[in-house]
Amino acid sequence: MAVKKSETSAEKKKIEEAKNSGKQSLHNLYDECNSHMRSLDFYKQELKYLQKRLADIVKNNTDSEILAQAEQFQNQFIITKENLDEQNHTIKSQLKAIEKLIKQKPTHFDEKTIPDGSKFSQNIHNTEKDFAAMKLRFNKFLAKYL
C-alpha cells in the first residue's frame, strides 16, 4: 500500500513539474493549432465581407474624401490578409511538425514535452484584437457615409 501511495505522489510531482515547466502536450498543442486555424478562417471570411462593403461604398460615392478613406481601408485590408495568410502558413507548418512528432512518439501524445506556444498564441490574440479595432473603425466609416 505504501508503494502505491509513493507512486501517486511521484506522479503528482511529475504533473506539477510539467505544469510549471512551460511545456504542453502534443495533443494540447495540436488542438490549439486547429483552433487557431478556425479563427483565422473566420477572419478571412469576415475580411471578404468587409471588402464587399467597401466596394459598395466606393461604387456609390465619388467624393474625394470618402475615396481617400476607402483607399486607406483597402490598404489595411490587404495588409491584414497578408498577415492572416502568414499566420495560416505558420500554423500549417507547426501542425505538420506535430504530426511528425506524433508518428515518432505515438505513445507520448499526452506527455508535456513540447515548449509552450504562448508566444504563438499571443500573436493570434493580437491579430484578433487588431481585427476587432479595424472592424470598429470601418463600421464607423460605414455609418458615416451610408
Structure description:
It contains 4 helices and 2 strands. It has a two-stranded antiparallel sheet with strand order 1-2. Residues 1-7 have low confidence and may be disordered. The relative contact order is 0.16. Helix 2 (26-60) packs parallel to helix 4 (118-145) and helix 3 (64-104) runs antiparallel to helix 4. The chain has helices at 2-20, 26-60, 64-104, 118-145; strands spanning 23-25, 112-115. With 146 residues, the chain is mainly α. The chain is elongated. It has one domain (23-145).
Q: Short description, anyone?
A:
The protein has helices at residues 2-20, 26-60, 64-104, 118-145; strands spanning 23-25, 112-115. The chain is mainly alpha-helical and 146 residues long.
Topology:
Layout: H1 2-20, E1 23-25, H2 26-60, H3 64-104, E2 112-115, H4 118-145
Antiparallel strand pairs: 1-2
Give the termini separation: 76 Å
Q: What is the average of the pLDDT values?
A: 82
Q: What is the global morphology?
A: elongated
Structural class: mainly alpha
Number of helices: 4
Count of separate structural domains: 1
Q: Could you give a short account of the major beta sheet?
A: 2 strands, antiparallel
Strand residue content: under 5%
Spans of 5+ residues with little confidence (pLDDT < 50)? 1-7
Topology as a string of helices (H) and strands (E): HEHHEH
Query: In which range does the helix fraction lie?
Result: over 70%
Strand order of the largest sheet: 1-2
* C-alpha-based Rg, rounded: 23 Å
Q: What's the count of strands?
A: 2
